[in-house]
Recover the amino acids of this structure.
DNA sequence: CATCGGATGGACT
DNA sequence: GTCCATCCGATGG
């Protein structure tokens, strides 16, 4: 019997990136490996809207092996390495619109024993998934997931909690101080009062 | 080729 | 607060 939550339809990703960044809040992100399923509710996101966003890897339509997937269909995984870590994004925007939503925080749901094992250095549960590199590690997301369609096993997004508008807050994005005007754009979104916000 | 700088996290002072 | 692991892409010679 398959009890895994059903993926959201691909059409879900066909909405503006700022709106998608908010729509993703509360949704369930799942990854299945040989060790089992681990999942969590998305609680913090950031929108990156190339080519006009200095903070986006796709700024100025910069097209490389790394950013290539952003130029394709929305609803695929954009993973990249930041120093020693893998970060996970949801590709948005139509073909040739290189936009994405970075997932910065999740609230652990299924497979919490597995997540704890994957985060041996975390002293507290809160540190398992309150940051983009942390949650990728906890879920077992790696560069092997680059380009994976998010409506399919083994990495997918399913319907989670329905939020009210007043539960969503926004503010400037994290870690992009050298991005000129773009550093102040309020393109970071999070669920009010949630414990698994990165900061 | 060399060098530099990150959409980070963890260890340490 | 500081330092650094370790990789990819940008830039300059």
């Amino acid at each position: 019997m398959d009890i895994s939550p059903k993926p959201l339809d691909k059409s879900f990703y066909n909405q503006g990136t700022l709106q998608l960044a908010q729509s993703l809040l509360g949704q369930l992100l799942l990854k299945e490996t040989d060790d089992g399923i681990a999942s969590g509710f998305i609680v913090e996101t950031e929108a990156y809207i190339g080519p006009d966003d200095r903070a986006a890897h796709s700024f100025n339509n910069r097209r490389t092996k790394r950013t290539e997937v952003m130029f394709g269909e929305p609803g695929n995984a954009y993973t990249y390495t930041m120093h020693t870590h893998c970060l996970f994004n949801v590709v948005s925007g139509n073909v040739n619109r290189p936009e994405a939503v970075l997932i910065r925080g999740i609230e652990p749901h299924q497979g919490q024993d597995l997540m704890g094992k994957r985060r041996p250095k975390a002293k507290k549960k809160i540190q398992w998934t309150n940051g983009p590199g942390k949650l990728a590690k906890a879920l077992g997301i790696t560069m092997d997931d680059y380009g994976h369609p998010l409506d399919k096993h083994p990495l997918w997004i399913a319907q989670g909690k329905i939020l009210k508008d007043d539960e969503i807050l926004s503010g400037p994005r994290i870690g992009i101080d050298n991005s000129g005007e773009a550093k102040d754009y309020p393109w970071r979104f999070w669920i009010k009062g949630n414990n698994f916000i990165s900061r």
About this structure: The helical segments of chain A are 17-23, 112-118, 126-129, 132-139. The two ends of chain A are 39 Å apart (CA to CA). Chain A has one domain: 10-191.
